[in-house]
């Protein structure tokens, strides 16, 4: 039976994918779960080729296309992503398939069936070329993350960015707060989140908070040319905007 490699940096998403694979066929072996470009490159250099790889586009240390630039990927690939579908349509002709997160079982099943049909054919697996990777990478630079996948008990939930009031750090962990004032742990640092979301929608106020333009209930002029922000979440303390950030914050409010 097939041996597959999972390259995914979001722990809930990786665990969910593993569960779906087991549900589809318990005899399929997941050889490893890797969360970075560097780790994937090292794995391919040291191990025999898997039958199939599931590869997230955004990894902990960069875009997964860097794997192809550093090492030969000797197996077909199914890409997974949290980006909108139109941003990766070019993969359709150069990979087995792509899956939009959170992955639904019927979509995984269809991707495996597509792979098994190709596996039995005499045609070689589609090649993921550097030319294609550069093209799609440029497309992705213009895109922002549109949803965050979080774990709720034994389930995964997809939260659109439109429903997020703010992100915040607490005790070395990062959380998001939704417009119904619920908090969820996410697998990204606040620095990483700031690179993934649209800066027109979110502003990094300080080391602890990144606010959406929907999260602010009131802004009060504070001492020493600073500002104090009252958030819509009732139990959240006011946030001080330092003097050096005030001009950029005002510009952001006017976007």
In short, what is this structure?
The protein has 255 residues and is an alpha/beta fold.
Please describe what this structure looks like.
A hairpin with a 2-residue loop joins β8 and β9. The protein is elongated. The strands form five sheets. It has a five-stranded parallel beta sheet with strand order 2-1-3-6-7, sandwiched between helices. Strands 12-11-10-14-13 form a five-stranded antiparallel beta sheet, with helices on one face. It has helices at residues 11-24, 37-46, 65-70, 105-120, 130-141, 190-196, 246-253, and strands at residues 3-7, 29-34, 52-56, 58-59, 62-63, 77-81, 97-100, 147-152, 155-160, 164-170, 173-178, 183-186, 202-204, 209-212, 216-221, 227-231, 239-241. The longest helix has 16 residues, at 105-120. With 255 residues, it is of the alpha/beta class. The protein folds into two domains: 3-141, Rossmann fold; 162-253, OB fold (Dihydrolipoamide Acetyltransferase, E2P) (Beta Barrel).
């Amino acid at each position: 039976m097939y041996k597959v490699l999972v390259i995914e940096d979001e722990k809930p998403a990786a665990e969910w994918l593993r569960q779906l694979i087991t549900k589809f066929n318990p005899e399929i072996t997941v050889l490893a779960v890797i969360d970075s470009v560097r780790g994937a490159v090292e794995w391919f250099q040291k191990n025999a080729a898997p039958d199939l790889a599931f590869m997230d586009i955004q990894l902990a240390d960069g875009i997964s296309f860097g794997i192809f630039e550093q090492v030969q990927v000797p197996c077909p690939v199914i890409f997974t992503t949290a980006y909108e579908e139109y941003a990766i349509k070019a993969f359709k002709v150069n990979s087995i398939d792509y899956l939009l997160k959170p992955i639904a079982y019927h979509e995984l099943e269809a991707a495996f069936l597509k792979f098994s049909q190709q596996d039995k054919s005499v045609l070689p697996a589609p090649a993921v070329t550097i030319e294609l990777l550069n093209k799609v990478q440029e497309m992705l630079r213009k895109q922002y993350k549109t949803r965050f996948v979080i774990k709720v008990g034994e389930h995964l939930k997809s939260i659109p960015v439109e429903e997020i009031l703010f992100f915040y750090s607490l005790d070395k962990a990062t959380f998001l707060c939704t417009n119904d004032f619920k908090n969820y742990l996410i697998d990204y640092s606040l620095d990483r989140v700031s690179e993934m979301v649209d800066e027109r929608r979110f502003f990094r106020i300080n080391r602890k908070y990144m606010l959406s333009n929907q999260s602010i209930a009131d802004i009060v002029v504070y001492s020493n040319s600073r500002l104090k922000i009252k958030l819509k979440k009732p139990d959240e303390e006011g946030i001080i905007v330092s003097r050096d950030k005030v001009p950029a914050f005002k510009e952001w409010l006017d976007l």
